[in-house]
Amino acid sequence: MGAREQGAHCTYIGPSGSQMGRKESMADTARVLSGFFDGIEYRGFGQKIVETLAHYASVPVWNGLTSEWHPTQFLADALTMRECAGGRPWNGITLAYLGDARFNMGNSLMVGCAKLGINFRSVAPKSLWTSDPVFQMAQGFAGKSGASVARTESVEEGVRGCDFLYTDVWVSMGEPDEVWKERIAMLEPYRVTGRVMDMTGKSECRFLHCLPAFHNRKTTIGEQIYQKYGIDCMEVNDEVFESPRNAAFLEAENRLHTIKAVMVATLAEENIDEALARNGF
Ligand code: NVA
User: Fold this and answer.
1) Which of 121, 168, 191, 215 is catalytic?
2) Is the minimum distance from the CB of 104 to ligand 1 under 6 angstroms?
3) Radius of gyration of the CA atoms of the chain, in A
4) Cα–Cα distance for residue pair 189/191, rounded to 1 Å
5) Domain CATH for 13
6) What does the pLDDT average to over 47-64?
7) By residue range, what is the domain housing residue 39?
8) Is the pLDDT of residue 147 over 70?
9) pTM listed for this prediction
10) Are residues 36 and 80 in the same domain?
11) Would you call 73 a catalytic residue per the annotation?
12) Domain stops at, among 10, 34, 66
Protein backbone atom coordinates (compact mmCIF):
# COMPACT_ATOMS: atom_id res chain seq x y z
CA MET A 1 0.00 0.00 0.00
CA GLY A 2 2.81 2.39 0.88
CA ALA A 3 4.50 1.89 -2.48
CA ARG A 4 1.23 2.17 -4.37
CA GLU A 5 0.15 5.34 -2.61
CA GLN A 6 3.50 6.90 -3.52
CA GLY A 7 2.92 5.97 -7.17
CA ALA A 8 5.33 3.02 -7.24
CA HIS A 9 4.67 -0.53 -8.38
CA CYS A 10 5.15 -3.42 -6.02
CA THR A 11 5.95 -7.09 -6.65
CA TYR A 12 5.53 -9.65 -3.88
CA ILE A 13 7.91 -12.62 -3.87
CA GLY A 14 6.62 -15.20 -1.38
CA PRO A 15 8.53 -18.01 0.34
CA SER A 16 8.08 -20.36 -2.62
CA GLY A 17 8.30 -17.68 -5.32
CA SER A 18 12.04 -17.76 -5.89
CA GLN A 19 15.11 -19.98 -5.59
CA MET A 20 16.44 -17.71 -2.82
CA GLY A 21 18.81 -19.70 -0.61
CA ARG A 22 17.79 -23.03 -2.17
CA LYS A 23 19.25 -23.09 -5.67
CA GLU A 24 20.58 -19.55 -5.67
CA SER A 25 22.62 -17.91 -2.93
CA MET A 26 21.36 -14.72 -1.34
CA ALA A 27 24.37 -12.91 -2.78
CA ASP A 28 23.35 -13.88 -6.32
CA THR A 29 19.65 -13.18 -5.73
CA ALA A 30 20.58 -9.73 -4.39
CA ARG A 31 22.34 -8.86 -7.62
CA VAL A 32 19.55 -10.22 -9.82
CA LEU A 33 16.82 -8.34 -7.91
CA SER A 34 18.88 -5.14 -7.97
CA GLY A 35 18.58 -5.16 -11.73
CA PHE A 36 14.80 -5.49 -11.62
CA PHE A 37 13.80 -3.27 -8.72
CA ASP A 38 14.59 0.17 -7.24
CA GLY A 39 14.28 -1.09 -3.66
CA ILE A 40 13.83 -4.41 -1.84
CA GLU A 41 12.05 -5.07 1.44
CA TYR A 42 12.99 -8.33 3.15
CA ARG A 43 10.61 -9.80 5.72
CA GLY A 44 11.76 -13.18 6.91
CA PHE A 45 13.83 -14.80 9.60
CA GLY A 46 17.58 -14.43 10.16
CA GLN A 47 19.08 -10.95 10.42
CA LYS A 48 22.18 -12.28 8.63
CA ILE A 49 20.05 -12.97 5.55
CA VAL A 50 18.88 -9.38 5.18
CA GLU A 51 22.39 -8.13 5.86
CA THR A 52 23.79 -10.32 3.07
CA LEU A 53 21.02 -9.07 0.80
CA ALA A 54 21.88 -5.46 1.65
CA HIS A 55 25.60 -6.08 1.21
CA TYR A 56 25.26 -7.46 -2.30
CA ALA A 57 22.32 -5.36 -3.51
CA SER A 58 22.93 -2.10 -5.33
CA VAL A 59 19.52 -0.66 -4.38
CA PRO A 60 18.12 0.21 -0.92
CA VAL A 61 17.18 -2.84 1.18
CA TRP A 62 14.62 -2.34 3.97
CA ASN A 63 14.40 -4.66 6.96
CA GLY A 64 10.70 -5.49 7.19
CA LEU A 65 11.19 -7.91 10.12
CA THR A 66 13.71 -10.52 11.15
CA SER A 67 13.84 -12.79 14.17
CA GLU A 68 16.22 -10.35 15.83
CA TRP A 69 15.04 -6.88 14.74
CA HIS A 70 11.93 -5.00 13.63
CA PRO A 71 13.10 -1.45 12.91
CA THR A 72 10.21 -0.32 10.71
CA GLN A 73 7.72 -1.34 13.39
CA PHE A 74 9.61 0.84 15.83
CA LEU A 75 9.20 3.86 13.55
CA ALA A 76 5.41 3.37 13.66
CA ASP A 77 5.58 2.92 17.43
CA ALA A 78 7.54 6.16 17.83
CA LEU A 79 5.07 8.11 15.67
CA THR A 80 2.19 6.67 17.71
CA MET A 81 3.82 7.69 20.99
CA ARG A 82 4.45 11.16 19.61
CA GLU A 83 0.78 11.46 18.59
CA CYS A 84 -0.57 10.12 21.88
CA ALA A 85 1.82 12.02 24.11
CA GLY A 86 0.57 15.39 22.91
CA GLY A 87 3.84 16.82 21.68
CA ARG A 88 5.83 15.99 24.83
CA PRO A 89 9.59 15.65 24.13
CA TRP A 90 10.96 12.12 23.83
CA ASN A 91 12.72 12.43 27.21
CA GLY A 92 9.34 13.06 28.82
CA ILE A 93 7.98 9.66 27.74
CA THR A 94 8.44 6.32 29.53
CA LEU A 95 7.61 2.98 27.88
CA ALA A 96 7.66 -0.51 29.39
CA TYR A 97 7.73 -3.66 27.29
CA LEU A 98 6.33 -6.76 29.02
CA GLY A 99 6.90 -10.30 27.76
CA ASP A 100 9.63 -12.24 26.02
CA ALA A 101 12.26 -9.53 25.52
CA ARG A 102 14.83 -11.57 23.57
CA PHE A 103 13.49 -11.15 20.05
CA ASN A 104 12.66 -8.57 17.40
CA MET A 105 10.35 -6.28 19.37
CA GLY A 106 12.19 -6.47 22.69
CA ASN A 107 15.44 -5.59 20.92
CA SER A 108 14.12 -2.90 18.60
CA LEU A 109 12.12 -1.11 21.27
CA MET A 110 15.08 -1.04 23.64
CA VAL A 111 17.54 0.29 21.07
CA GLY A 112 15.02 2.54 19.30
CA CYS A 113 13.91 4.20 22.54
CA ALA A 114 17.51 4.62 23.67
CA LYS A 115 18.38 6.31 20.38
CA LEU A 116 15.47 8.76 20.55
CA GLY A 117 15.70 9.49 24.27
CA ILE A 118 12.55 7.65 25.39
CA ASN A 119 12.93 6.07 28.85
CA PHE A 120 12.61 2.33 28.42
CA ARG A 121 12.05 -0.60 30.75
CA SER A 122 12.12 -4.22 29.72
CA VAL A 123 9.91 -6.23 32.09
CA ALA A 124 10.42 -10.01 31.87
CA PRO A 125 11.59 -13.08 33.76
CA LYS A 126 15.38 -12.97 33.81
CA SER A 127 15.79 -15.91 31.42
CA LEU A 128 13.77 -13.97 28.80
CA TRP A 129 15.67 -10.69 29.15
CA THR A 130 17.16 -8.85 26.20
CA SER A 131 20.75 -10.06 25.72
CA ASP A 132 23.70 -8.26 27.32
CA PRO A 133 25.17 -7.12 23.96
CA VAL A 134 21.86 -5.49 22.92
CA PHE A 135 21.47 -3.96 26.40
CA GLN A 136 24.99 -2.55 26.18
CA MET A 137 24.32 -1.20 22.69
CA ALA A 138 21.20 0.54 24.04
CA GLN A 139 23.12 1.95 27.01
CA GLY A 140 25.61 3.46 24.58
CA PHE A 141 22.84 5.28 22.70
CA ALA A 142 21.12 6.26 25.95
CA GLY A 143 24.33 7.94 27.11
CA LYS A 144 24.00 10.33 24.17
CA SER A 145 20.21 10.82 24.13
CA GLY A 146 19.66 11.06 27.89
CA ALA A 147 17.23 8.11 27.96
CA SER A 148 17.21 5.62 30.82
CA VAL A 149 17.26 1.93 29.92
CA ALA A 150 16.47 -0.80 32.44
CA ARG A 151 15.71 -4.52 32.67
CA THR A 152 13.62 -5.79 35.55
CA GLU A 153 11.69 -8.87 36.61
CA SER A 154 9.25 -6.82 38.68
CA VAL A 155 6.00 -5.83 36.97
CA GLU A 156 5.21 -3.33 39.71
CA GLU A 157 8.57 -1.59 39.44
CA GLY A 158 8.67 -1.82 35.66
CA VAL A 159 5.31 -0.24 34.90
CA ARG A 160 5.21 2.41 37.62
CA GLY A 161 4.87 5.89 36.07
CA CYS A 162 4.78 4.59 32.47
CA ASP A 163 3.02 6.46 29.68
CA PHE A 164 2.88 3.38 27.46
CA LEU A 165 2.78 -0.37 28.05
CA TYR A 166 3.80 -2.56 25.11
CA THR A 167 3.58 -6.31 24.70
CA ASP A 168 3.95 -8.88 21.93
CA VAL A 169 3.22 -12.55 21.29
CA TRP A 170 4.75 -14.95 23.80
CA VAL A 171 6.11 -17.32 21.15
CA SER A 172 8.07 -15.61 18.42
CA MET A 173 8.42 -16.46 14.77
CA GLY A 174 10.52 -19.51 14.09
CA GLU A 175 10.04 -21.01 17.58
CA PRO A 176 8.56 -24.52 17.84
CA ASP A 177 5.07 -25.20 19.29
CA GLU A 178 6.62 -27.19 22.14
CA VAL A 179 7.62 -23.98 23.91
CA TRP A 180 4.01 -22.82 24.49
CA LYS A 181 3.47 -24.63 27.77
CA GLU A 182 6.59 -23.37 29.47
CA ARG A 183 6.22 -19.87 28.02
CA ILE A 184 2.65 -19.50 29.25
CA ALA A 185 3.68 -20.52 32.75
CA MET A 186 6.54 -18.02 32.72
CA LEU A 187 4.69 -15.10 31.20
CA GLU A 188 1.19 -15.21 32.73
CA PRO A 189 2.25 -12.75 35.48
CA TYR A 190 3.37 -10.37 32.71
CA ARG A 191 0.02 -10.26 30.86
CA VAL A 192 -1.21 -6.69 30.32
CA THR A 193 -4.50 -6.48 32.19
CA GLY A 194 -6.53 -3.56 33.53
CA ARG A 195 -4.79 -4.07 36.87
CA VAL A 196 -1.35 -3.79 35.28
CA MET A 197 -2.44 -0.65 33.36
CA ASP A 198 -3.64 0.81 36.69
CA MET A 199 -0.31 -0.04 38.33
CA THR A 200 1.30 2.62 36.12
CA GLY A 201 -0.52 5.20 38.23
CA LYS A 202 -1.30 7.10 35.03
CA SER A 203 -4.91 7.21 33.87
CA GLU A 204 -3.76 8.38 30.42
CA CYS A 205 -1.38 5.39 29.97
CA ARG A 206 -1.93 3.80 26.51
CA PHE A 207 -1.49 0.22 25.36
CA LEU A 208 0.70 -0.64 22.35
CA HIS A 209 1.14 -3.91 20.42
CA CYS A 210 2.75 -4.62 17.03
CA LEU A 211 -0.08 -7.11 16.25
CA PRO A 212 -1.33 -9.72 15.70
CA ALA A 213 -2.39 -10.09 19.35
CA PHE A 214 -3.83 -13.08 21.19
CA HIS A 215 -6.44 -11.22 23.24
CA ASN A 216 -9.37 -13.64 22.86
CA ARG A 217 -10.35 -17.07 21.48
CA LYS A 218 -11.43 -15.80 18.07
CA THR A 219 -8.42 -17.18 16.18
CA THR A 220 -7.46 -20.77 15.43
CA ILE A 221 -4.41 -20.59 17.68
CA GLY A 222 -6.27 -18.66 20.39
CA GLU A 223 -8.90 -21.42 20.52
CA GLN A 224 -6.28 -24.21 20.44
CA ILE A 225 -4.47 -22.59 23.36
CA TYR A 226 -7.75 -22.34 25.28
CA GLN A 227 -8.52 -26.03 24.64
CA LYS A 228 -5.05 -27.10 25.71
CA TYR A 229 -4.19 -24.72 28.55
CA GLY A 230 -7.56 -23.24 29.59
CA ILE A 231 -6.65 -19.57 29.09
CA ASP A 232 -8.80 -17.33 26.89
CA CYS A 233 -6.10 -14.76 26.12
CA MET A 234 -2.36 -14.55 26.28
CA GLU A 235 -0.22 -11.38 26.36
CA VAL A 236 -3.17 -8.96 26.78
CA ASN A 237 -6.78 -9.38 27.81
CA ASP A 238 -9.91 -7.90 26.23
CA GLU A 239 -10.41 -5.58 29.18
CA VAL A 240 -7.41 -3.63 27.83
CA PHE A 241 -7.51 -4.55 24.16
CA GLU A 242 -11.15 -3.53 23.67
CA SER A 243 -10.79 -0.36 25.72
CA PRO A 244 -10.07 3.23 24.66
CA ARG A 245 -6.60 2.76 26.15
CA ASN A 246 -5.63 0.57 23.21
CA ALA A 247 -3.61 2.54 20.63
CA ALA A 248 -2.59 -0.56 18.62
CA PHE A 249 -4.81 0.24 15.64
CA LEU A 250 -3.41 3.76 15.35
CA GLU A 251 0.00 2.09 15.56
CA ALA A 252 -0.99 -0.30 12.74
CA GLU A 253 -2.04 2.63 10.54
CA ASN A 254 1.25 4.35 11.31
CA ARG A 255 3.10 1.41 9.74
CA LEU A 256 1.82 2.73 6.42
CA HIS A 257 2.82 6.35 6.95
CA THR A 258 6.27 5.54 8.29
CA ILE A 259 7.21 2.98 5.64
CA LYS A 260 6.33 5.57 2.99
CA ALA A 261 8.72 7.98 4.70
CA VAL A 262 11.46 5.34 4.72
CA MET A 263 10.99 4.62 1.02
CA VAL A 264 10.92 8.29 0.04
CA ALA A 265 13.94 9.08 2.21
CA THR A 266 16.04 6.31 0.72
CA LEU A 267 14.86 6.39 -2.88
CA ALA A 268 14.47 10.04 -3.66
CA GLU A 269 17.30 11.91 -2.02
CA GLU A 270 17.38 14.74 -4.57
CA ASN A 271 13.67 15.33 -4.16
CA ILE A 272 13.97 15.40 -0.40
CA ASP A 273 16.76 17.97 -0.56
CA GLU A 274 14.69 20.09 -2.92
CA ALA A 275 11.64 19.79 -0.70
CA LEU A 276 13.64 20.68 2.41
CA ALA A 277 15.18 23.68 0.68
CA ARG A 278 11.77 24.82 -0.56
CA ASN A 279 10.52 24.72 3.01
CA GLY A 280 13.44 26.72 4.37
CA PHE A 281 15.47 23.91 5.96
N1 NVA B 1 7.36 -10.45 17.42
C2 NVA B 1 6.52 -11.15 16.50
C3 NVA B 1 6.31 -10.45 15.19
C4 NVA B 1 5.91 -9.06 15.25
C5 NVA B 1 5.31 -8.56 13.96
C6 NVA B 1 7.15 -12.47 16.17
O7 NVA B 1 8.36 -12.60 16.21
O8 NVA B 1 6.42 -13.40 15.84
Assistant:
1) 168
2) yes
3) 20
4) 6
5) 3.40.50.1370
6) 97
7) 2-66
8) yes
9) 0.94
10) no
11) yes
12) 66
